[in-house]
Amino acid sequence: MLQSLMHIQTNRDGVVSRRSFLRSVAVGAAGLGILGWKEAVALQAAELRKQGMACILLFMRGGPSQLETFDPKPGTEHGGPTTAISTAVNGIQVAEHWPSVAKAMNDIALIRSMTSREGEHVRATYQLHTGYAPSGSVKYPSIGSIAAAELGKPDFDLPHFVSIGSRNVIGSGFLGMSVAPFIVANAAKMPNNVQLPRKVDAQRFGRRLDLMRDLEQDFAKSGGSARVDEHKALYGSASRMVLSPRLKAFDISQEKDAVRDLYGRTPFGQGCLLARRLVEQGVTFVEVESNGWDTHQDNFDRVKKLSGVVDPGFGTLVADLKVRGLLERTLVIWLGEFGRTPRINPRTGRDHFPRAFNVALAGGGIKGGHVIGATSADAMDVKERPVKVPDLFCTFCQALKIDPRKTNVSTGGRPIKIVDGGEAVKELFT
Q: Kind of pairing, strands 108-114 and 357-362?
């Protein structure tokens, strides 16, 4: 069923896809006055939601070294002791501590020519989550909240955006609480407060919600309607989650021990497994964080340990999604806020380096077994096909079938495009 659906969407023999047909109908009907533009856009949005697109972001907080991950340069001036290993794709090598990723390289694409100007953790983390540099006047939404707003079903009974293991989550900004991240501190445990209190059944719980709505009416009538509406949306989504049969997706103890072992019995590995379970149940966006990549000292020993945790989670996730028929509709992103300096400092570390770093992508129509761009022999500069942050976000949007030029309105009334500038990396889709 899934394969036949994907064939309809990607037919290259001159047959108009269902999505293209509906888009044409929507735009044409709007032009003829049969539908207003809002109704036309709503029709397109409904079609996107039916496709069930999803995204999993694996965020390496601190800035992973490109030379010890996916752009190794053994034997060069700045390569350090790291060696390279071959992958499932001839001609593509990765750093030695990534064997699971190497096996999955047929489905993974590497961008080795990312470049940015933001070299401070907070600012760069913000930019690599929102596509925008921080601004005092606007709180931009993260890509997770954007995906949730564009693709999430309004009546879905689990959170659209789940963040696993993150210390400081970039939230929904001006898009509001309905697409804010739901925080899971420990993937190996059920979230707190998701069971009904003892002796409270669904009916009694419903009566309590009705009472709360009644109590809020006076405040709404006295000028607090906006706050009340936001609060209703928040506890409405929470109550749907508590009563949802899909809540069991959070219980990874239901997985076989062998599967859990493949992902790795670590917070990150189990987070990747939970991410797969959630998108399988219809969650739109899941972020899983690995912390500790700020390797100003002991870079090589620390990256070896970190890679040993992240590699099985990342590689198994891609393979598992593929086996289950979920990879084509699930974009998997591996990235950090920037890279590390090619020059090794006196503490055997590497410092912040946004000028040239790497990103890995899989699924969502991305062409695996492919490398975009290259850095110079000394790793100091991008020498081929530079990719900037807006380009990367346009690429995310193309994979998720989101219009990057769609304009939202901030709380201050300012029109904000999902992505301001940039172009998708087309080579990743051909």
A: antiparallel
Distance, in Å, from the CA atom of 54 to the CA atom of 356, rounded to the nearest integer, reads 28
Q: What is the pLDDT of residue 20?
A: 45
pLDDT above 70: residue 26: no
Strand partners, 361: 109, 333
* Intra-chain end-to-end CA distance of the chain, in Å: 24
Main-chain phi, psi angles of 61, to 5 degrees: -70, 130
The CB-side HSE value for 348 (13 A sphere, CA atoms) comes to: 9
Token couple for 351 = 């410092």
Are 392 and 362 in contact by the 8 Å Cβ rule? The answer is no
Region 141-154 average pLDDT:
96
Q: Which residue has the higher pLDDT, 27 or 202?
A: 202
Distinct helix (H) and strand (E) counts, the chain:
12, 16
Provide the pLDDT for residue 8: 34
**SS3 call for 30:** helix
| Region 251-274 average pLDDT | 97
Rounded to 10°, the helix 267-280/299-323 angle is 20
Residue 392 in contact with residue 339, Cβ under 8 Å? no
Give the whole-angstrom CA distance, residue 390 versus residue 116: 10
* Residues 429, 114, 300, 318, Cα dihedral to 10°: -20
Mean pLDDT confidence for 153-160: 90
Smallest CA-to-CA distance from 84 within 62, 67, 103, 101 is with 67
CB atoms within 10 A of CB 300: 18
Phi first, then psi: give them for residue 285, nearest 5 degrees: -140, 130
Res 188 pLDDT > 70: yes
Distance CA 243, CA 57 (A): 27
The pTM of the full predicted model, rounded to 2 decimals, is 0.84
* Segment 39-48 long-range contacts (CB within 8 Å, at least 24 positions apart): 45/150, 47/18, 47/19, 47/22, 47/23, 48/150, 48/151, 48/401, 48/402
* Listed residue (332, 284, 315, 317) closest to 428, CA to CA: 332
H helix or E strand, kind and range, residue 48: helix 37-51
What are residue 103's phi and psi, to 5 degrees? -65, -30
Nearest to 320 by CA among 286, 258, 276: 276
DSSP string, 336-364: ES-EE-SSPPTTS---EE-SSEEEEEEST
